[in-house]
Amino acid sequence: MDGSFVEIKNKSVDELFLDPKNPRLGRNFISTVKGQDEILAQMNDWTLDELAISFIESGFWAQEALIAVEEELYGSKRLIIVEGNRRLAALKKLQDAIAGNAEEKKWRDIARLAEGKIGDDFFEKIPYIKVESREKVSAFLGFRHVTGIKEWEPAEKAQFIAYLIEKEKLTYEQVMRKIGSKTTTVRSHYIAYKLLLQLEDTEDVAVEKIEEKFSLLYLSLRTAGVQKYLGINIKAEPEEAAQPVPSDKEENLVRYSKWMFGDAKTTGILGDSRNIDKFGKILLSEDAVTYLEESLSPNFEMALKKSGGDTEETLSLLIQAGDNLEVAFSTLHIHADKPEIQKIANRLALHLVQITNIIPSLKAVVKEKI
Predict the structure, then answer these.
(1) What is the SS3 string spanning 180-242?
(2) Least CB-packed of 7, 84, 142, 355 within 10 Å?
(3) Considering the domain boundaries, does residue 141 fall inside one?
(4) What InterPro entries does UniProt report for this protein, alphabetically (predicted)?
(5) Can you tell me the distance from the alpha carbon of 118 to that of 348, in angstroms, rounded to the nearest whole number?
(6) What is the pLDDT of residue 139?
(7) Beta strands 76-83 and 16-17: pairing type?
């Protein structure tokens, strides 16, 4: 993948192996080496049927060649596919279906669709390109899946970046150049991934909920409030980022996790992901943090009010109300005798009284104008 000449070869489907280290399988799944059947089952909901149908209708072209490395697997040297696992999985499912081994109806239907369209040697000549090592192909994978058109999920991106830093010993800048991303993005993904690992080793944390919503964890680290509350240095080099949250902040880490993602019994207080920035403001407020820490059932809106984070929204609503009243005043005199207008005007008058009670200095202003 370095721009030099590459040779496209052919192998049978059975000689090509799904990658047990594929980040898309999930960090916990790939923590131990799984068998090919287990991997294929894990990939079952990756819309493999759509790919299989496209192979039946259009074939498997050389420009779709899989990328493989030769590594030790299951006690022998194997050709392991490091790019194109979804295509290989679709081929394996299609081969099983045509052989009459499909358990799902949709695959039996696909097998019937393949009748007369798939040649006898179709599964014996699958194009692939062999590369020396995973390192040789990592730049291509990084561009394609981290910044390119076939992006991985955020947790998968972060795991790949961690691999480049920890296994290939690259700096943030070197990773940036290799995968075509920004240095700040690389650093943030790495620190977020190390925080996920730290959470996994922390008691009273529902890490499975966090992993499902890794993007929220990643986004929250942009806020000054989260950085301060957890004691995270968002500019940390890899050595410092090994444990993003210092030991004296571990209790805060558990609380952060509960508020953001919930635990075994709760769903967290954050709600919509658009509340991330507001949550950051809450954590900058001593009063709001004290409320969250001491309340048995903390409420996001209450915490936001205590932090003063709803000031902008209140101001916006008042401005909108004032603007609407000014527009209404231009024709109010024409409709002043109508009962429905008088009813609403009475309501607004009561609101005015309430405003002067909240801001007593306005009473003199109103009295002067009446």
Answers:
(1) CCCHHHHHHHHHHHHHHHHHHCCCCCCHHHHHHCHHHHHHHCCCHHHHHHHCCCCCCCHHHHC
(2) 7
(3) no
(4) ParB/Sulfiredoxin_sf (IPR036086)
(5) 76
(6) 57
(7) parallel
Phi, psi of 149 (to 5 degrees): -85, -15
300/168 same-domain check: yes
**Could you tell me if residue 3 is inside a domain?**
no
Which position has the higher pLDDT, 134 or 251? 251
Q: Residue 146 has what DSSP assignment? A: I
Residue 110 has, within 13 A of its CA and on its CB side, a CA count of 28
Same domain for 321 and 291: no
Task: Examine the pLDDT at 142 and tell me if it is beyond 60.
Answer: no
For residue 64, give the nearest of 125, 119, 4, 21 by alpha carbon: 125
Residue where a domain stops, chosen among 307, 339, 357? 307
Helices (H), 272-338: 276-283, 286-294, 300-307, 311-335
Q: Inform me whether the pLDDT recorded for 259 exceeds 90.
A: yes
CA distance to 13, 57, 90, per residue, from 110 (Å):
18, 11, 11
CB of 157 closer than 8 Å to CB of 213: no
Contact 276, 220 (CB under 8 A): yes
